[in-house]
Specification:
Strand content: 25-35%
Number of strands: 13
Helix content: 10-25%
Order of helices and strands: HHHEEEEEEEEEEEHEE
Shape: elongated
Length: 256
């Protein structure tokens, strides 16, 4: 295919203009090339919408998308593949999860983190939330806010029921199990309850808490409300507050 004459003439003018430019010393050519590479990198990252290269950065970006900033990170928990984050603003509580899986979208998407917001709750009364990731013992973590000022310690009992078996036919799950944990009041006013799975089941029976947190990036653990009982005591062991309620179901808000 013959190249049109106007293309040849245009290319000739560009080449002629380039040849007339003063020749830079080697040092300045290196500086020029580095500057051009930096500008090109910024353009590429802008086209890719500046991927979040860490789990926490993905969580912070999702908070910002829902106008939940400025906020303060209260607690984080993770097992290497997924992480759960608890943060607070002036009048709200946010809980989110980030999993190490590439989300669907652009073929050149460099962001390998899939983030969800599970709870956006107001700071009204005593609030209890479940973090969507395992602790070091493979159990769940619950956080409580809004305890009376005189409360220094607490006990939380969590009932798990109706947990789905991700591997039907391989083993059974107890229909209802109760787990208990204790916590001390932190300086920031939060109570963090660390639960431990049961290990006294039979050969073909699994702990409900292990299956609660098994479901990976989808985090199906929060499809239903789970009952809990909370007792808060003062320094002398006197009960200062009690609450029986259910953990709220996850809202599962993704990136827009």
């Amino acid at each position: 295919m013959r190249t049109p004459d106007f293309v040849k003439k245009g290319w000739g003018r560009v080449k002629s203009w380039w040849d007339r430019l003063p020749k830079l010393p080697r040092r300045w050519r290196i500086v020029r090339n580095l500057a051009a590479a930096a500008v090109l990198a910024v353009l590429v990252l802008t086209l890719l919408e500046w991927p979040a290269l860490s789990s926490y950065a993905s969580f912070r970006r999702l908070e910002g998308a829902y106008l939940l900033t400025p906020s303060r990170l209260v607690f984080q928990v993770g097992d290497g593949w997924s992480a759960g984050y608890l943060s607070e603003g002036d009048s709200w509580i946010t809980v989110g999860s980030v999993s190490k899986f590439k989300s669907s979208g652009k073929p050149l998407n460099l962001d390998r983190n899939y983030a969800l917001l599970h709870y956006i709750l107001p700071k009204e009364g005593i609030v209890a939330v479940l973090l969507p990731a395992k602790n070091e013992d493979g159990g769940a973590v619950a956080a409580v806010w809004g305890a009376p000022e005189e409360a220094v310690s607490g006990t939380m009992e969590l009932d798990l029921k109706g947990i789905k078996n991700p591997f039907p036919g391989t083993f059974t799950i107890q229909r209802r199990e109760t787990f208990s944990a204790q916590a001390q009041r932190r300086e920031d006013g939060w109570f963090i309850f660390q639960f431990v799975p049961h290990d006294d089941h039979g050969e073909h029976t699994s702990c409900a808490m292990e299956m609660l947190l098994w479901s990976g990036p989808a985090f199906r653990w929060a499809e239903m409300e789970q009952p809990y009982r909370l007792t808060l005591t003062d320094g002398q062991g006197n009960t200062v507050a009690e609450q029986s309620a259910t953990l709220p179901p996850a809202q599962r808000l993704p990136q827009w």
